[in-house]
Design goal:
The chain has an 8-stranded antiparallel barrel with strand order 1-3-4-5-6-9-10-11. It has a 4-stranded mixed β-sheet with strand order 12-15-13-14. The chain has helices at about 5-25, 170-180, 280-285, 380-385, 405-420, 435-455, and strands spanning about 40-50, 55, 60-70, 75-95, 100-120, 130-150, 185, 200, 205-220, 225-235, 250-260, 395, 425-430, 465-470, 475-480. It has about 475 residues and is α+β, with helices and mostly antiparallel strands. It folds into 2 domains: about 40-280, Porin (Beta Barrel), CATH 2.40.160.20; about 370-480, OmpA-like domain (60s Ribosomal Protein L30, Chain: A, 2-Layer Sandwich). The longest helix is centred in the N-terminal third of the chain and has 23 residues, at about 5-25. It is elongated.
């Protein structure tokens, strides 16, 4: 193999992997490719009238057009409109030769047009695609106008001597219409007018024109739209009504209904761009990104406790330690020693402070500070350590099981004694048969006392026993330490 060929192959093998790697991690373009949108073909028909030197009568006209979007706002439209317009004056005029006539016309007009359309409502921040399109347009038109007259309204029959013009306009025009026999003669245009482009077939006027207008369209479904449009055409000519007599040019007005049909394969082309929100790409990219290369976030966790270092209050917790949601080592009893080193996970607060192993220093119960005095060493251990000698009875009002302030204070004092004597067991007794109404009331009173001692004062329910007897004050609940030293 020649040396130059070997060198070329080695260069290719070196560059290709680098280029391939770059292609995988970079995006060559910052903007999306343009949408391939459909053409819109439309048919229309409407009210056509020419504003000129004589009274106009409305006619009608059909047409068709093809429209293509340039972007979401601007589009271009080419079209054709054919129309008939009519006019009949109510005043007599004279020809240069002195003959009387009443001006009238029928204008068979053909118009080709090319418009630039600007659409509104294409952008929206709080909706997807609009189903309404407002637009305005301006453009160029070329007009072919075949203007014919009814010559019956000329000569002696329409002279002021024969025909009565001293009436209302409506009455005059009604009689003139009755005299008309048809538009069979080309209108004679005075030699003094400006010819514009000229004539077509030496008969029809050919004129340049400027077009402008506005419209509204409503999208019916993915293909059809229905709209209304008003357009004005300025042909720079005063001949469109067959009379060149004024100081201003004639104006053609066309008010139409339009049915639009989007063409093309829906799998390969979108709807015309003026129906699509130009913010769609941005919001779709924000919701489900196809363009941005987002790498998964990496949250450091140096001690491996499951809490990222950004929020970890103790980023160096020993391995295996239980932590709370802030990354701090668990300390159930709040003694300052983490649970993984605490030999007494639930140390009572009365035993604080604790040693380095979490073990508390509990004070000796007051009743047992001197075990050599009156503690009964001949009795079992739980009898001779401590006992509660005086326990007050609890009294309730008739038919009541609510604790008063006084009874609450009594129970608070009792709870302190129970905590001081860990082996004492309190029996709570009501004086009524359980099956009677009074017995049921007493049971509620007993339950209230137990809930207060257990829920409010932290006394274990295993140290509280209940009982009933039928003799005694039914409004009294008796409490006593059944392990009390005798």
């Amino acid at each position: 193999m020649p040396l130059s060929l070997k060198f070329l192959i080695s260069i290719c093998l070196t560059i290709f992997p680098v280029a391939a790697a770059q292609a995988q991690i970079t995006t060559p373009h910052s903007y999306p490719t343009g949408s391939k949108d459909a053409w819109e073909l439309s048919v229309h028909s409407g009210y056509a009238i020419t504003t000129g030197d004589i009274d106009a009568r409305a006619g009608w006209g059909p047409g068709l057009a093809a429209r293509k979007a340039i972007n979401h706002t601007f589009s271009v439209r080419a079209g054709y409109t054919g129309s008939f317009q009519y006019g009949l004056d109510y005043r007599p005029r004279t020809t240069p030769a002195g003959s009387w006539y009443v001006a009238n016309y029928r204008n068979a007009m053909h118009q080709g047009s090319l418009d630039i359309i600007a659409s509104a409502l294409t952008a929206g921040n709080y909706r997807q695609n609009s189903r309404t399109s407002l637009y305005a347009f301006a453009g160029y038109g070329i007009i072919i106008a075949d203007i014919d007259q009814d010559v019956t309204l000329s000569g002696n029959p329409v002279s002021p001597v024969v025909f009565n013009y001293n009436r209302s306009r409506k009455a005059i025009k009604a009689d003139l219409k009755a005299m008309m026999q048809g538009f069979h003669t080309n209108a004679s245009i005075p030699n003094g007018n400006r010819e514009g482009i000229g004539r077509y077939h030496n008969n029809q006027l050919l004129r340049h024109a400027v077009r402008m207008g506005a419209g509204i369209a409503f999208r019916l479904n993915s293909r059809l739209s229905l709209g209304a449009e008003q357009e004005f055409t300025l042909p720079f000519s005063d001949d469109i009504d067959g009379v060149n007599a004024g100081s201003s040019n004639d104006v053609f007005s066309y008010t139409s209904l339009r049915l639009g049909i989007s063409s093309g394969n829906r799998l390969r082309k979108t709807a015309p761009l003026w129906w699509l929100n130009l913010n769609n790409y941005i919001y779709q990219e924000l919701n489900v990104s196809k363009h941005m290369q987002l790498t998964p976030p990496v949250l450091p966790d140096a001690d491996g406790d499951g809490i990222t270092d950004l929020f970890d209050l103790e980023p160096n917790t020993p391995a295996g330690s239980k932590v709370d949601m802030r990354g701090a080592a668990m300390d159930t009893d709040g003694d300052g020693v983490p649970d993984d080193r605490d030999k007494e996970v639930l140390t009572h607060m009365m035993c604080f402070p604790v040693n380095s192993s979490g073990q508390g220093n509990c004070p000796e119960p007051p009743c047992c500070r001197d075990l050599t005095r009156g503690c009964g060493y001949d009795r079992p251990l739980h009898h001779r350590l401590c006992s509660i000698d005086t326990v007050p009875d609890i009294f309730f009002s008739k038919n009541s099981f609510t604790l008063t302030t006084q009874t609450r204070d009594q129970l608070v004092n009792l709870a302190d004694q129970i905590n001081a004597c860990p082996y004492s067991i309190i029996q709570i007794t009501g004086f009524a048969k359980p099956s009677t109404k009074a017995g049921k009331l007493n049971q509620k009173r007993i339950d209230v006392i137990i809930r207060f001692l257990s829920d409010k004062m932290g006394i274990s329910e295993s140290r509280l026993q209940t009982g009933h007897t039928s003799t005694g004050n039914p409004n009294k609940i008796s409490l006593k330490d059944i392990n009390r030293t005798r």
